[in-house]
Structures are given as structure tokens and as C-alpha cells.
Design brief:
Layout (H helix, E strand, L loop, with lengths): L1 H11 L5 H10 L7 H12 L9 E3 L8 E3 L29 E5 L3 E5 L5 E2 L3 H4 L3 E5 L4 E6 L3 E7 L9 H4 L3 E6 L5 E9 L2 H13 L8 H14 L8 H17 L1
Antiparallel strand pairs: 1-2, 3-4, 3-10, 4-5, 6-7, 7-8, 8-9, 9-10
Helix pairs in contact: 1-3, 6-8, 7-8
Organism: Pyrodinium bahamense
Pfam family, one: DnaJ
GO molecular function: misfolded protein binding; protein-folding chaperone binding
């Protein structure tokens, strides 16, 4: 009953004087509605589960805004990984890009190719969540105000993104702030081009995906001379030269 009444009171209460609120509460069989009492009703009406609930606060009288919803107020700064955590996604972990996982048997989350982390919570929908991964298989998820989560891929690391072979793949770890356990189970690949993009770029230059910057520059110079339109005016060489140039510019 408190939930339904709370939803209605969320809109009605701010428009009523304190005396009217008292009368309404008595008619409904509640004690005199103090600020704490109303706040309890509204918190029942608006709190969520799965670590992604909204906070709702009601204040009687003066002293600031009567309602405070998560996401309101001053604009928050973009999240930053703490020291010691890689900011980028290791090339050997590119298979994780564009994949969807079930988090804690709760809801599905997505590892976007640009390093953003998508989950059905206010923080993530506001762009406050991101992820990175180290070459040793350690995955880092910075989940808004919930903070950093560190997970390990269980079993052998995939060498490439193969949806059929990745079935049953799991990650397990903890939230660093309080040690609360977390786990994720692979569901599907939703963006098949996300992991293939960089792989194709290295392949265009004839390099392995772990090539360093020096190797990339060296091969680019060699291939750009070989396929330069001034030396090879045919259409195939022009197309090849354009692919090499684009791959180098993106990787560099």
C-alpha cells in the first residue's frame, strides 16, 4: 500500500500545505506524516534493485530543493581509472569488444568497442561507466558511483571472437571498495565488427595484432612506396594504397 500511496504523494505532497498533508495521512489511517515518514514511503516507491536503484529524498519545510533525484544537480565529471589500472584495452582482449554478458544473474551488460560500459543503471546511462582490460586477462569495470570492479576470465582466454566457442565463458571478481563479489556470464556477440576492425587493420599492413608503433611505421613506409599511385597508376594499386594509408592513420 505504501508503494502506491508513495507514487501518488510524490506529485501531490509538494502542492499541499503541512496541515493538509496531516489530514490526508489521518484519513488514510497513517500517523501524523512527519518528514521522515513521508521519506520512507517515497523511498519504497522509487528504490530499485540490482544495484541500480534511484535515491529519492523528500524534505519538509525549507532548506533546499524538496526533491533530489539521482542524476540531478551539478554535472558530474567523467570517470577516471585509478592509478595502476590500464586505461586502454589490450589488443589480445579485443575479442571482448561488442559482447553482451549477464551480470550477477541480474541484467545483461555490454562491453562497447569504444571502452564504454552499458548497463541498465542511471550511472551507465549517463555515460559514467567504462571498461578496460589487460593482456593477462584481467578486466576492469568502472561502474559510476559503485566504483571499480576487477574480474578475471575463467579458463583459457579466447584468441579470437568466436561466439560458438565462447558459450559458457565466465568472469569472476570483486568490487574493490568493499570486496563484494561479482560475476559475468557470456551471452552473445552483438557487434561482430567491433573486434574485427583492428584485426583487419593489422592484416592490411601484414602485421600481427601485437605489433608495436615502430613496426607499424616501418611497414607503412615500405608498402606506401610499393603501392604509391605515382609508381602504380592502375586502379588496384590505388585502392591498396588507400587501404594502407587508412590503416596506418587509424593505428597510429
Amino acid at each position: 500500500r505504501g508503494v502506491y500511496i508513495g507514487c501518488a504523494m510524490a506529485w501531490v505532497v509538494p502542492l499541499l500545505p503541512h496541515s493538509a498533508i496531516t489530514v490526508v495521512g489521518l484519513l488514510l489511517g497513517f500517523p501524523t506524516p512527519t518528514g521522515a515518514f513521508i521519506e520512507e514511503i517515497l523511498s519504497q516507491a522509487f528504490s530499485g534493485g540490482g544495484g541500480g536503484g534511484q535515491t529519492f529524498q523528500f524534505q519538509m519545510g525549507g532548506g533546499g530543493s524538496p526533491f533530489e533525484m539521482m542524476g540531478g544537480g551539478p554535472r558530474r565529471k567523467k570517470p577516471k581509472f585509478p592509478k595502476g589500472v590500464p586505461k586502454d584495452i589490450a589488443k589480445s582482449m579485443n575479442w571482448l569488444k561488442g559482447t553482451e554478458w549477464n551480470w550477477n544473474n541480474w541484467r545483461n551488460v555490454k562491453f562497447e568497442k569504444d571502452g564504454s560500459f552499458e548497463a541498465p543503471t542511471q550511472d551507465c546511462q549517463s555515460g559514467m561507466c567504462k571498461w578496460s582490460a589487460a593482456s593477462n586477462g584481467k578486466v576492469y569495470v568502472l561502474w559510476g558511483e559503485a566504483g571499480l570492479h576487477e574480474l578475471d576470465v575463467l579458463g583459457e582466454l579466447p584468441k579470437e571472437q568466436d561466439q560458438s566457442r565462447m558459450q559458457g565463458l565466465r568472469m569472476r571478481g570483486r568490487r574493490t571498495s568493499d570486496g563484494e563479489r561479482c560475476q559475468a556470464t557470456f551471452q552473445r556477440v552483438y557487434d561482430f565488427e567491433a573486434a574485427e576492425l583492428e584485426k583487419d587493420l593489422y592484416g592490411t599492413l601484414g602485421l600481427p595484432d601485437d605489433a608495436d608503433e615502430g613496426d607499424i611505421k616501418k611497414v607503412y613506409r615500405k608498402l606506401s612506396i610499393k603501392y604509391h599511385p605515382d609508381k602504380n597508376p592502375d586502379e588496384e594499386s590505388k585502392r591498396k594504397f588507400a587501404e594502407i594509408r587508412d590503416a596506418y592513420e587509424i593505428l597510429n
